[in-house]
Amino acid sequence: MLSHILPKAEISIRENLRWLYILRNLMLFAVTFAVFIAVNGLGINLPQNQLWLAIFAISILNLYTWLRLRTPEEVTEHEIFSQICMDVLALAYLLYLTGGASNPIIWVFLLPLIVTAIMLPQAYAWNMVIITSCVYTVLIAYNVPLPAIEPHLVHPAMAELTPEMSLQLHLMNDRRYFNLHVFGMWFGFVFSAGLVAFFVVELSNTLKERERNLADARESALRDERVVSLGTLAASAAHDMGTPLGTIAILTHEMVEDFPEHRYPELYQKLMIVQQQIDRCKQALSVMSASAGEMRAESGKVMLVSEYIDEVLNQWRAHKSATRMKLFVSPNVDMAAKIIAERTVTHSIINILNNAAEASPVDAGIEFHADWNEENLFLRIRDFGPGLPAEFIDFAGHQPVKSNKQGMGVGLFLTYTTIKRLGGTIQFSNLDSGGACVEISLPLLAKESIHDEFAYG
């Protein structure tokens, strides 16, 4: 439940390693396809054993990367650069066996350079420029020539041919050489176009997602800032209200003694109600003072979801005993699911229940639906009142509004902020049958976290 607010270090670097793993899979597929086409489609005599050995080595490297992504250890930029260098060496060996610089797909050396420039700082990119340039230069002089692109081989049988027949044979070999390069350029264009399109789309989606996350973070920061301001004002108000409230409590106690029940029964009952409300105010101020400065995790405890719902409803019943409630609990719930029973969440749910009770007629009451699984708790609170104004639903909870007779004011803003801060969701709607409905979703404590707590706690 608390994992969404914890810092996620090295997310971008680990994501880069994952993309490198995906790209290497694409490269393996492309190389395997090219070897298959060259051998079976074009009839080129290639050193297949050495080629398949190189492909197997790249597969082993990719298997290591897959296992590495499943470990929690930190991924470094140097590690990513080292893996890209190994990819360059593997590509160099493949090209060495297939004609070196004369191979029509020699452009593949641009891919490690592009990947390095995108994923790593500028210094790594310039180092990759040096490495790929040196490897390209070496492949010009040292390589295993492709049999199909040697247009003027000297064969003993060619000595018996006439000059005209020898010229025709040379022209046929030149045409075969040209067709192979045309095919290599076509394959390079198709592969490059697909790769560029794939990366452009994914990069665009990543940028859009990052912009949305930044907008949400900015909105959350502004909302939290307003909550901090309201909390400061609330603490100041609680401090200022303590003394006059104590004075009122003393005066009320004296009035109860001056007007005994047997002589002034009606006035005595009214004074007792006033005294109860004063005690309730003092209790709320005490809770506020005791909660000031506490961390969220310290103010809660791990509870079974069923027990937590009973506790919330019992606290609400203590102040709204006259309100009718219909309780609906789904039969298909995970009875072992647990939640962090944080005080702010409890007050948020109680605030929604109070608003629903005040909006509904006394004889109609409210409905409380509860359902949960291993991951989330779903609450649905429905009243039978006039419903929410249409313009109110659009910004409900996003900002404080002026309180009205339904009580939808600053309390709702704090409720919305608390639930969003915990990674939950809250939605407001009006039902066609009448009344308003509030749907709340809260993340539950993962079972792995529970096991860790017992193991290390």
TrEMBL record:
Domain Histidine kinase, chain residue ranges per copy: 236-446
The keyword ATP-binding is assigned to this record: yes
InterPro entries per record: 2C_sensor_his_kinase, HATPase_C_sf, HATPase_dom, His_kinase_dom, HisK_dim/P_sf, Sig_transdc_His_kin-like_C
EC number: 2.7.13.3
Keywords: ATP-binding, Kinase, Membrane, Nucleotide-binding, Transferase, Transmembrane, Transmembrane helix
Catalytic activity: ATP + protein L-histidine = ADP + protein N-phospho-L-histidine
Group of enzyme by EC: transferase
Record field: transmembrane: 21-44, 50-67, 125-144, 180-201
One of the record's GO molecular function terms: ATP binding
Protein name in the entry: histidine kinase
Upper classification of the organism: Bacteria, Pseudomonadati, Pseudomonadota, Gammaproteobacteria, Methylococcales
